[in-house]
Structures are given as C-alpha cells and as structure tokens.
Design a protein that fits this description.
Elements lengths: L11 E10 L2 H15 L7 E5 L5 E10 L2 H13 L3 E4 L1
Antiparallel strand pairs: 1-3, 1-4, 2-3
Helix pairs in contact: 1-2
Length: 88
C-alpha cells in the first residue's frame, strides 16, 4: 500500500479509543482535541470506562471519519499530549 492508501473507505464510522489518567483534565483535553479535528461528537458518541482500580480512564469516541489525513492529524495531536497514555 502506498502512503495514501488505507484499508478504510471514507467516509466511515470510526471508533477511537484513548487512554489516560482518570481525571477531568484528561477527558477535557481529549474531547477538545477530538472537537478540533472532527467537530462535536455528542454525548451519545462517547463511552467512558474506568480501570478496575479507577486509576485510568478509557474514552471511546465514535465519529464519522472523512479521510486518512484527518485520522492521521487527530492521532498525532492526541499522541503529542502528555495526558494521553495510549491511542487505538
């Protein structure tokens, strides 16, 4: 596959999972970055799951992805954040 090729056909529904510390700052920053790249996801598009001990939070935000470039830019922005531990 070339750099522009991807297994996805756009537009497509895309579930983005982001993990970090279970605090309000993490969630606020992640949602702000998502809004910057895909618009307002809406509360129904956000799933929250705390780790067993409550120390970490996983956010899954489902949105309509419009291009590989959009996803790449969003992943770069999230991974540049000190609050984000992992993105899937």
């Amino acid at each position: 596959m070339s750099e522009e090729e991807t297994a996805f056909e756009f537009p497509c529904t895309f579930p983005l999972k982001v993990m970090g510390s279970h605090d309000e700052a993490f969630e606020s920053e992640v949602l702000a970055l998502v809004r910057d790249h895909v618009g307002e996801p809406g509360e129904e598009a956000i799933q929250r799951r705390a780790s067993r001990n409550g120390r970490y939070l996983s956010l899954t935000v489902t949105f309509t992805a419009t291009s590989k470039a959009q996803l790449d830019d969003l992943y770069r922005a999230l991974n540049a954040s000190d609050r984000v531990l992992m993105t899937l």
